[in-house]
Amino acid sequence: MNSPVLLLVILLLLFLVAGFVSSQQRSIDFAGPLRLWLWARDVRRMQRRDRFPETLRRSYWSPREYQRDSRLLQSIGYGVVNEQRSDPYEELPAGVSLVGRRQPARRRVPMFYVLYEHHEVR
After folding, report:
1. How far apart, in whole angstroms, are the C-alpha atoms of residue 46 and residue 55?
2. How far apart are CA 96 and CA 12, in angstroms?
3. Average pLDDT value for residue range 95-121
4. CA distance from start to end of the chain
5. Alpha-carbon span 114 to 110, nearest angstrom
6. CA angle 8, 13, 14 (to 5 degrees)
7. Predicted local confidence at residue 77, as pLDDT
8. Average pLDDT value over all residues in the chain
9. Nearest Cα residue to 90 out of 72, 71, 109
C-alpha cells in the first residue's frame, strides 16, 4: 500500500474507534433544535391567537433545552408548578448470550419533566 492510502485507512479506523467510545459516553440529540423550533412556534401561535392552555406538560432532554423553553414560557405568563428530574440514561436489563452475560444496555430518556401553569401577565 502506498502511504496516502495507509494514512487514510489509519485515520478512518481512529475515527471509528473515537465514535464508538464517545457513543458509549453520551449520545447526540439531533431532535433538540427541532423541538425548540416547534415550541417557539407554539408560543408565537398562542400569542397571535391570544389563547393559552391552563397547563402545559413538557419533557426536556437537556438542561439547555429546559432553560431556553422555560424563558419563552415565562415571558407569556407560565410558571413552573411541578418539576421532576431524572437520570438521562435508563439501564435496561442485561441480556444473556451464548458466550455469557452482556453489559446492560442504556437508553436515553428525558432529564426533566415539567408542568407549567398559566398566570395572567400584567
Report:
1. 13
2. 32
3. 80
4. 73
5. 11
6. 100
7. 94
8. 84
9. 109
pLDDT in tens, 40-91: 999 999 999 999 999 999 999 999 999 999 999 999 999 999 999 998 888 8
Dump the DSSP string for 68-108. Answer: HHHHHHHHTTEEEEEEEE--SEEEPPPPEETTEEPPPPEEE
> And the C-alpha cell for 53?
392552555
- Whether the pLDDT of residue 37 is over 90: the answer is yes
Which residue type occupies 8? L
Distance CA 104, CA 108 (A): 13
Q: Domain coordinates of the chain in residue numbers?
A: 1-30, 31-118
Cα 60 to Cα 114: distance, rounded to the nearest angstrom: 8
C-alpha cell of 58?
413538557
Residue type, 115: L
How does DSSP assign 13-24, residue by residue? HHHHHHHHHHHH
Angstrom distances, CA of residue 20 to CA of 3, 23, 75, 99, 111: 26, 5, 41, 22, 23
